Amino acid sequence: MDASVLLALRDPAGVPFYPVVFQVLYVLTWALHAAFVLLALGSMGLSIYGTFSQKSDSNWKILTPHLIQTGKISISILIVLGVAPLLFTQVIYDPNWYVANTLSGMWVFIFIYTLIVGYIMYYWYYYANKKHEGGGKLIGIISFGILVFAGLLMHNFAVTSIMPNEWMNMYAPNGIVDNSGWTFNMDIVRLVFMVSLAIPVVGIFLQNYSRFLSTRKDFSSEFIKYTAGLGTKMGVIGLVISALCFVAWMVQIDYLFTPLSLAIIAGVAILLLMVGKNNNSYLTTIVLVIVALLISGMRELIRFNIMSNLGYSIYEYPVNLEIPTIAMFLLTFLILGGVGVAWLLTMAWKVGKNQGIFDGSKDVAVTKLGNYTLGIMILWMVIYFTWGMFILFNNIL
Ligand code: HEM
Question: How far apart are CA 332 and CA 323, in angstroms?
Answer without folding.
Answer: 14
